[in-house]
Amino acid sequence: MLRENALKAALAAGQPTFGLINSTGSAVVAEMIGLAGYDFVLIDGEHAPGDQASYLACLHAVMSTKATALFRVASNDPVHIKRALDLGVEGIMIPDVRDANAARAAIDACHYPPKGTRGSAARLIRASDYGFSIDRYDRGFGAGELFICLMIESRSAIDDIDAIAAIDGYDALLIGPYDLSGSLGVPGRFDHPAFRDAVARVEAAALKRRKALGGAATATDALEQLIARGYRFLTNGSDVAFLREAFTRDLKRARGSAS
User: Fold this and answer.
1) b/e map 230-245, b = 16+ CB within 10 Å
2) Count of C-beta atoms within a 10 Å radius of residue 202
3) Distance between CA 195 and CA 185 in Å, rounded?
4) Residues 119-141 as b or e (16 or more Cβ within 10 Å = b)
5) Cβ pair 95, 72 in contact under 8 A
6) Of residues 175, 163, 185, the one with CA closest to residue 102
7) pTM to 2 decimal places
């Protein structure tokens, strides 16, 4: 279960990386995303239906492919983070990191004492092959194999973005455009000056600190534009959105052929 983090290696080499959010909670769909060749699959523990057992099934599925298995926890809570890490995720995404103190707490929750505050059951968990590979797990973790992403989704995070970006111990900052625009009072208005200014501040802070910059295409920012501005950690959408669009397109075509 322990392997080199291919996502971190690609980002370190400056390569753009692409992934999909597994919003269905389906292990079959998660496996298909990985087999399609995406760099990462983001198993969604924040919004998708699921529990530890279904998340584990998705994790098994993704790790049968070459894709890196990421997990978005429900909130910036040490218990949620601990339970995700114990499953053996290869990367963790922390939603709604609102200031530098919250960022430090999230990073601390990813590490055992004395480096952090993570509760230890290392000899029992899947992450260490249930204790069969505990030394290898400790070495890999100590060498920074875990990918840590902090999500920027609020006005308060923008106000403290320089301090957040300056913290050590994380790999990427990812902008959540819908929540961020809502927090700024302009929900979904990605061309609004307040939103554009906030995004520019995150971009500048991440690039200054040489952190991977993450985001998703919107109606005003195509993937090509994001890549040109330095984004390297890109979510192309979700399985739910892809399926919805495919269903709608197919039914429209079918009804058109019958008319």
Assistant:
1) ebbbbbeebbbebeee
2) 22
3) 9
4) eeebeebbbbeeeeebeebeebb
5) yes
6) 163
7) 0.94
Tokens of 176: 């959540």
Exactly one of 47, 60, 111, 192 is catalytic; name it.
Answer: 47
Closest by alpha carbon to 35, among 22, 45, 44? 22
Tens place of pLDDT for every residue, the chain, 259 residues?
678 899 999 999 999 999 999 999 999 999 999 999 999 999 999 999 989 999 999 999 999 999 999 999 999 999 999 999 999 999 999 999 999 999 999 999 999 888 899 988 888 999 999 999 888 887 766 557 899 999 999 999 999 999 999 999 999 999 999 999 999 999 999 999 999 999 999 999 999 999 999 999 887 899 999 999 999 999 999 999 999 999 999 999 999 987 7
Paired with 94 in beta bridges are 150
- Spatial contact of 36 and 67, defined as CB atoms under 8 Å apart: no
A 10 A CB-CB count for 1 gives 17
47 is catalytic: yes
What is the set of domains in the chain, with CATH numbers?
A: 6-258 (3.20.20.60)
